[in-house]
Specification:
Helices cover about 45% and strands about 15% of the residues. It has about 800 residues and is of the alpha/beta class. Among the domains are: about 5-300, Homocysteine-binding-like domain (TIM Barrel), CATH 3.20.20.330; about 595-675, Methyltransferase, Methionine Synthase (B12-binding Domains), Chain A, domain 1, CATH 1.10.1240.10; about 680-798, Cobalamin-binding domain (Rossmann fold).
């Protein structure tokens, strides 16, 4: 296919024809993207620490690279704006000039070919809260600044690329959706196991991005085409948009003083052929690829058919996992403060450890979804709800249900919800439908519809069915498919009216058979006012399942079971509940948990910082403190590390566990070691010059500090001269260097060389997304660590 055959009008400000043209093109044709920008600039001898500024200082160079990709057959090029954000370019005026120049350069190159231009928006370079300081709202503002500039420029789309955190991806996607009218492509970078280092899964990314309106989803960077092929299947399974794949030219290697890649253009094109045969319709290259790679890829794939995926899999997701709605699901109800004084206090005082412990316990007990409720008088419910969502979604790998009657609080929570969740709830009142359903549609959520209106709850099953139909019809009018509507026919207490359980069961059957939608009930309401409520709840659970119930909001410890007295009660055969009450000998048991009885290991594994001090105080004394450190604390850290390696724990758990361990170690040192203990062996750590990403470095720092190392953090974007100056000052035994961008590998090499020339005995450890074991050897480093736990293991042997 020759690019000259494509007729794309050169866009001008707000040219909607061109915008629609690209969207239509990708529905009918295979789209070829460009290759790398950064590695091309390095090959031409440029310092890429401020690559975006080259748009202004060397526009002819940037235009030349764009033009070469068009000449090779690319239909679309990315602007040279990967790091064009206010965290990297603080001067707002300069930032705007850079973005305008970048678009002009790409458009100038595209003009003779009738090609497309996509504005490239990369990650900010900092991890979002709760395990770093960057707020979701601040991340949104950073992307909004770019969006407001881009909306006025002649681009055909926005590409949000190389993301590793779904929360950051969502902040970017919302900013560009709300402040531009452009098509948006989204891609994340994954490791071989199909997760990013924050734990984000391929399927979860795909569902989240498409539910928010992404026009195409893809994978780029980190991996070569051979390894990326292994992840295409997961992307295909959940995609309802075109898919794009933009791999590296293999992995970087250091050879003859230069950074190269281990996959040549012919091999790359052969591997891309296999990806094209999977139906992928949009192909390009990332780090290390050149116009030759794109040209050969086009030659190999131009005649292969492709698929526009339109999967409609019913699924919720957290950042870490996907929950397909193919069977009955349990919604954990215990994060509802009604009648729970300890939980009320935890919400009021921001005791997120207690809240997280409740969530972890419910997950361990078998909950599939967690209901999140912060409905307490006298607080800012929106702020609390959003804060809880941020913390919980990075603690437990379960989808969330947002439970509030306040639409303002609902939207604040939905904006920070990373994944596809459930809104609880809407009802059949016109005001509720008009306020809630637009939010459900905008944020791509599922919704619980309550069978009530301004007249209250109907007293018969037919009346509840009628209200259910009103909700389903209204959802359809807002563009919400009925598969995303879950109807709650409502459960009333049997102690109030003996017929209440039967009405609910009849309503479940009617709604499912006539409307074909899922049903849910807050099951424990049925036993209100009775002793031993779980006995009644368990029997009602069994009856509801038999009636076809799809979800139940319950304590996940509850199991469906039979009890003769409870059955008669629920079937309306026990007037005034007398027989059931007479059969019970014990009073209702309260089910609140605390963290004061946890062991040190449990605090570390579950990441419960608030219980750490009490846990260690309960077991440590002057005789056993060394054993407690070695077996309980270090042992638990090692166990958590193993879970992380196995994909059973993720980044937030690793950081929280390390924090809990630090609390315990600090207490033991202060109490039982007179001088506070040794400061530990000194380790300097830094992200190398030109790289503003310090997420991985911060994780390594947090984990190693709890293994006794004295960590001295030099920060990010640190020049070799600064590192060497710190080496001379602190005389460390170890130096750790991190790099996320391939364009900074040469700077890492220079830093390693300078350190070794100054003192060959210093152990240099290197790591980061683009660093490999081979590169570490070639540049003279002593240790390559793929992550924090790998660093712990390898440093133990030094």
């Amino acid at each position: 296919m020759q690019i000259a055959t494509i007729t794309v009008a050169v866009a001008t400000k707000n040219d909607k024809y061109c915008v629609m043209k690209l969207v239509e093109f990708i529905k009918k044709n295979r789209l070829y993207l460009d290759g790398a920008m950064g590695s091309r600039l390095i090959a031409m001898g440029f310092d890429t620490n401020q690559a975006e500024l080259l748009n202004i200082t060397h526009p002819e160079v940037i235009q030349k690279i764009h033009r070469e990709y068009f000449e090779s057959g690319s239909h679309l090029v990315y602007t040279n704006t990967f790091g064009a954000n206010s965290k990297k370019i603080a001067d707002k005026k300069l930032l705007k000039e850079v973005i305008i120049a970048a678009v002009q350069n790409a458009r100038q190159a595209a003009k003779p070919f009738g090609g497309y231009v996509a504005y490239c928006s990369g990650p900010i370079g900092e991890l979002l809260e709760p395990y770093a300081h960057l707020k979701h709202e601040d991340a949104y503002e950073i992307f909004k600044e770019q969006a407001e500039i881009v909306q006025e420029l002649p681009v055909d789309s926005v590409v949000i690329e190389t993301m590793s955190d779904i929360s950051e991806l969502k902040a970017a996607l919302l900013a560009y959706k709300e402040h531009t009218s452009l098509p948006i492509f989204c891609s994340m970078s994954f490791s071989e196991g199909g997760h990013t280092f924050t734990g984000a899964a391929v399927g979860a990314f795909c569902l989240t991005a498409t539910s928010l309106g992404a026009d195409a989803v893809g994978i780029n960077c980190s991996l070569g085409a051979d390894k990326m092929l292994e992840l295409v299947g997961e992307l295909k399974k959940y995609a309802s948009t075109p898919i794009f794949i933009k791999p590296n030219a293999g992995m970087p290697i250091f050879r003859g003083g230069n950074t190269e890649y281990d996959t040549d253009a012919n091999t790359f094109a052969s591997e891309m052929t296999l990806i094209a045969q999977e139906g992928v319709s949009i192909l390009g290259g990332c780090c290390g690829t050149t116009p030759e790679y794109i040209k050969k890829t086009i030659e190999n794939t131009k005649n292969i058919s492709f698929t526009i995926f339109n999967n409609q899999i019913d699924a919720l997701c957290s950042p870490q996992s996907v929950l397909e709605l193919d069977s009955f699901k349990v919604i954990g109800e215990r994060l509802n403060p009604t009648g729970k004084p300890l939980l009320k206090r935890a919400i009021t005082e921001d005791d997120f450890d207690y809240i997280s412990a409740l969530c972890i316990e419910q997950a361990e007990d078998g909950a599939d979804i967690l209901d999140i409720n912060a409905g307490i008088a006298g607080i800012d419910e929106g702020e609390k709800l959003a804060s809880i969502v941020k913390r919980v979604q990075n603690t437990v790998a379960l989808p969330l249900q947002i439970d509030t009657v306040k639409t303002s609080a609902l939207e604040r929570a939905l904006r920070v919800l990373a994944g596809v969740g459930v809104v609880n709830s809407v009802n059949a009142e016109r005001e509720s439908l008009d306020k809630v359903l637009p939010l459900v549609k905008k944020y791509g959520a599922y919704v619980v519809g309550l069978c009530l209106d301004e007249k209250g709850i109907p007293q018969d099953a037919e009346g509840r069915f009628r209200l259910a139909k009103i909700i389903v019809d209204a959802a359809k009018a807002h563009g919400i498919d009925k598969k995303r509507v879950i109807i709650d026919p409502l459960t009333m207490a049997v102690s109030v009216d003996k017929d209440n359980p039967l009405i609910t069961l009849q309503a479940i059957s009617l709604i499912k058979s006539r409307l074909g939608v899922r049903t849910v009930i807050g099951l424990s309401n049925v036993s209100f006012g009775l002793p031993d409520r779980d006995v009644v709840n368990a029997q009602f659970y069994k009856l509801a399942l038999e009636a076809g119930l799809d979800f139940a909001i319950i304590n996940p410890k509850l199991k469906a079971s039979e009890n003769e007295f409870a059955l008669n009660l629920l079937l309306g055969k026990d007037e005034d509940c007398r027989a059931y009450i007479a059969s019970r000998e014990t009073a209702e048991k309260k089910m609140e948990i605390g963290s004061d009885a946890l062991t040190p290991e449990e605090c570390i594994i579950k990441g419960i910082k608030s219980g750490a001090l009490a846990a260690v105080k309960a077991v440590v004394d002057a005789e056993n403190f060394a054993m407690i450190i070695e077996q309980d604390i270090i042992g638990a850290l090692n166990k958590l590390g193993e879970q992380y390696e196995q994909g059973k724990a993720f980044l937030p758990q690793l950081i929280a566990g390390s924090d809990a361990a630090k609390i315990m170690l600090d207490y033991i040192k202060d109490k039982y070691i007179p001088d506070g203990g040794s400061d530990g062996e000194v380790m300097l750590i830094a992200t190398v010059k030109g790289d503003v990403h310090d997420i991985g470095k911060n994780i390594v720092k947090a984990v190693l500090s709890n293994y006794g190392y004295r960590m001295i953090d030099l920060g990010k974007d640190v020049a070799t001269a600064q590192i060497l100056q710190a080496v001379k000052k602190f005389k460390p035994k170890y130096v750790g260097l991190s790099a996320l961008m391939t364009t900074t590998l040469d700077n890492m090499k220079d830093s390693v060389k300078s350190i070794k020339e100054y003192d060959p005995s210093i152990v240099v450890l290197v790591g980061g997304a683009v660093v490999t074991a081979e590169f570490a050897r070639e540049c003279g480093a002593d240790i390559y660590a793929k992550d924090a736990q790998d660093a712990v293991a390898k440093l133990k042997g030094r």
